[in-house]
Amino acid sequence: MKVVFSPEHGLMGDFPDGVKVKSYFDTDFNVNVYSLYGYRYEPPIDVIKDLDAVIYDIQDVGARWYTFISTLYHTVRSCSKAGVKLYILDRPNPVTGVRIEGPILEDSFRSFIGIYNIPVRYGLTPGELACLYNVEENFSVDIDVIKLNGWSRRMWFDDTDLLWIPPSPNIPTFMSALIYLGTCLFEGTNISEGRGTTKPFEYIGAPWINPRKLTIELNKIGMKGVKFRPIYFRPNASKYSDEKCGGIHILVTDRERFKPLETALHIISIIRKMYPDKFEWRYSGGKYWFDMLIGNNYVRKMIEEEYDVNEIKDRWIKDLNRFKEKVKKYFLYT
């Protein structure tokens, strides 16, 4: 092993989200570690051109905005430029390979939290996704996917014999990863997504929310596979640090029926209607962060115009169904 490349959160997964990580020499492994988050996103050509091959081995969470798949994209592209073989040591999609949800990313919203035109919940393994990148972007890399033994598309992570190792500090459990597929959208608002609590992405709230009233409104909708309970929490980091927040705890009762993205849109819509003078979209650098996450601006605008969530979903369903058909040719598992 000549060098190691590390994604967001660092080699050991201990850096918080968004923190730039420096490259360094690792004395435990006696190897140079090049960070691919912060100062560069792509493995340097002058480094990898002298390698026999690059090996990619990272467990993902199955969400488009989780940046490990952006690192995968840049790795495939860098190998294309350098003419180096790429091995993918494949990993399970922890939230199954059969459930696909959300709008397809629009070109004008491509970024490191939305690297390619796929749905939010895209239903592929890293190996399958690398093959999609390679073909659709004409990278023409010699990719060899080392396939999983015993994995099938309908399996959840806890159906395997694998241990859940947190890929980042705020995805401590498999359940937080599942709910994160929707509640990461709260990063684009002034609502706490539970960072700095024992239940990141499962706790949602703000100092000005009445938890009981919000819970009643959400449970009235009758969303499938999920219930809500009223809570108070006090984050020790991130939004509203050390402030008492009222909100909800999202409880998944049937993961086969639970739709995390749809659930999150209902919560945002209800909170905005209940607290029109308090709720805000996060806006910086001339961009709405919510738009960058969801991959378009029409979802935010339709929420503002008080469209029903089902009407919003109708806007993307045709593109989503086309994706479901197109992507089958990249399946490595049944």
Describe the structure.
- It is a single chain.
- The protein is 29% helix and 15% strand.
- The chain is of the alpha/beta class and 334 residues long.
- The strands form four sheets. The chain has a three-stranded mixed sheet with strand order 1-3-2, with no helix packed on it. The protein has a three-stranded parallel sheet with strand order 4-5-6, covered by helices on one side. The chain has a three-stranded antiparallel sheet with strand order 7-9-8.
- α2 crosses α3.
- The longest helix is centred in the last third of the chain and has 18 residues, at 309-326.
- The two termini are 33 Å apart.
- The model has no long low-confidence stretch (mean pLDDT 97).
Residue-averaged pLDDT, rounded? 97
Number of helices: 9
Q: Could you name the CATH class of the largest domain?
A: Alpha Beta
The largest sheet, given as strand count, sense and whether it forms a barrel, is:
3 strands, mixed
Q: What overall geometry do the principal axes of the alpha carbons give?
A: globular
**CATH fold call of the largest domain:** Rossmann fold
Amount of helix: 25-40%
Instruction: Give the low-pLDDT segments.
Output: none
Count of folded domains: 2
Question: For the record, what is the CATH homologous superfamily label of the largest domain?
Answer: Uncharacterised protein PF07075, DUF1343
Head-to-tail CA distance between termini: 33 Å
Structural class: alpha/beta
Number of beta-strand segments: 11
Please state roughly what percent of the residues sit in beta strands, choosing from under 5%, 5-15%, 15-25%, 25-35%, 35-45% or over 45%: 5-15%
Order of helices and strands: EEEHEHEHEHEHEEHEEHHH
Rg, alpha carbons: 20 Å
CATH architecture of the largest domain: 3-Layer(aba) Sandwich
**Spatial strand sequence of the major β-sheet:** 1-3-2
